[in-house]
Structures are given as structure tokens and as C-alpha cells.
Amino acid sequence: MYIMMFPVLIWFTLKKIPENERLVVFRLGHLLKSKGPGIVLVFPLIDTFQKVNIGLKAFSVPPKQIITADKSIIEVGADIYFQIVDAEKSVTNIQNLDLSIRILVQTALCNLLVQKKLPEIEGERIAIANAVMVSSNKTCQNWGVTITRAELSHIKVLQGPPTKKPAQMCMPPGLFGGSDVPFNISQLAQLITENQGSDHTETIVNLLQTFVGGIKPVEDKAKQLHDSIVHKKEPTETQPIESVNNVELFPALDVDGILLLIQKALNENLVQKVSETFQFDVSGSGTYYLDLKNGQGSVGHGPDPTGHPSAVLSLSFADLQAMLFGQLKPFHAYMSGRLKVAGDTAAALKLEELGLRIQHLTNKNIPC
């Protein structure tokens, strides 16, 4: 049949392939070696083929907004030059070669720039372009493609790095007699530095006594706070809980005082935030329940009335008091072993909301 149709088929059998192209031939679905350049013999009906241009090509990666390591926002793209080195792989291993390379380079560029700060990007354009090219070529090799050159486009800065605010020192309230500057400590340090080896014992003792005298006693104010809780009165402006050496001194309340304080702190907003029930097994004091799930909340002696508290907390009375006055976070108490939780641990950690509520009632007149 081929002999009879030879005069007609000859025009469809011989293909002329130029120097910058290759012909990838499939015979009955099986890949043959790529052919060309020159005259290539292709059998109609049983052979299919695809021409591949192996010349140098180029494309542009469209600019994309990127957030750098120093929180700057920039817009940058790239120009990419590539060449097909294996025509067979470029046909069989990838479906849309140009689009795949464009996405690959754009992803590699973004992953690299988000790890660098704005000054580094502006000063290392060539190094960044080379790094993108090397990273992309590791994948392109499987596609029969080699990226020969990469250049970053103009870097457009949309937003520079945010300015850092200077750190501010927050002095504990009531310390140094209300003064913001520990003047006596400065005098003491200057005296020791300038007169090393001299006997200034009396002067140093006087300065230390003056410094200690600047710390106001808190016993009377703790008693006032206790009385205000027992008699259902709000603390006045003269009743803040003082702080000494960054440790707040809370009043020494008994069990009934603690229960009254918790009862005073309960409201619907707190119940909505927590929405849990608790049972406290306080060593040396007994068992108590706290309902922060129903109504406006309730607290009292004995186990949880429902019989199914969200969490059962075992701790000492001192640690319970410290948690209520914000000196001990529930999470820190749990991690250090001072608080043992049976049941829902996440529910137990919500008790910090109760501590914040109590601190608001007792310290609302204290500035930061």
C-alpha cells in the first residue's frame, strides 16, 4: 500500500527541521528519540510528532507585593532567560512549560525575599537573582530546561520598615515615696564609685534608711481593703495595694474574706467569658465551688453542686490568694506543679479572667 501511495505520501513523510528546532516523534504512542536538524522521515498514520524550539527564550515575572523580614512592603518582579536542553523531557515531563517556569521562578523569588530585610534586598540584587536562578534550576532540570540568566526588576518600596518606639520604664506605684527617680540609690552608687576604699559607713547607712523610709507601709491599707470587702464598700483612692520591688503585696485575707471578694467580683460579663464550673480542693482549708456558668455566678463552701465541674483544682490557700491578686498566673502555677488540675485544663486556665476582674476592683485607682 505504501508503494502504491508513495507519490502522495512522500510529501507527508519527509520533514525539514531547522537548526534551532527538534522533532519529538511518538510511534504508536511510544516515544522515539528526538530528531533533527535536517530531513526527518515520519510515517503517516502510525507516527505523531511535536516540534520543540530549543533557542533561547525570555519572559517577565510580573511584579508582586512582598512583605520582607523587617515588615517592609515592596513590589518587585524579574526577567528570566531560559533554554530547552532536552526536547524529550520538555514534552513528556511537563504539560505547560512556559507557565510552569514562570510560577516556579515567582515562588522562588518570594520565598527568598521574605527572609531578607529591605537594605539587604537593595544591596544584593545580583546575588538574589543568582540564588533564584540556582534554586529554580534544581527543578527545571527534570523538565529539560536550563535558566541561563535572571535579573530583578526595579524594586518599588510601598512601605518602609516600621519605626521602633523607645522602651518606657514603668515604675511600681508607691515606690520611693511617689518619686519617679530613685534619687537616694543614685547618691549611694555615686558615693561608692567615687570613694572606693574610704570609710563612709555612716553615710551609706543614712542613705539606705532614707531609701527604705520612702517605701510606704501597706498593713493599714490592707486592713482598709479587708474592711471594705466585708462591709461591701468600694476601695477609695487612698486604698491602693502598693508594690515593692515589682511584687504586689495583697492583703492577708481569711477564707471567708476570699469568698466575699470572689462574690463581689462576679457578674454576667465574667460568666459569659468563662462559662465553666470549678471545684477547689484547698490544702488545709477545705473544698469550695465556683460557678461561672449560670446566671451571675456563685461561690461557696463544699463540692460543686452539679457534681460535674469542668475542672477540679488542687492548690494551697496561699497560691489561691496569689492567683486571685494577679501574682500567680494559672498557667505558670500549672506548669510549675503548684496547681494540679483534674478535668479540663483549658477551662482551669480561664480563671485568669477572674483574677483580672478582682485586680480591677482592687487596683483601679493605681496608674501603670
TrEMBL record:
SMART domains in UniProt:
PHB (SM00244)
Q: Where is the Band domain?
A: 12-169
GO CC term, one of those recorded: cytoplasmic side of plasma membrane
The record, for InterPro entries, names: Band-7_stomatin-like, Band_7, Band_7/SPFH_dom_sf, SCP2_sterol-bd_dom, SCP2_sterol-bd_dom_sf, Stomatin_HflK_fam
Region forming the signal peptide? none
- Domain of life, per UniProt, equals Eukaryota
Q: Name one Pfam family in it.
A: Band_7
Protein family according to the UniProt entry = Belongs to the band 7/mec-2 family.
Name of the molecule in the record: Stomatin-like protein 1 isoform X2
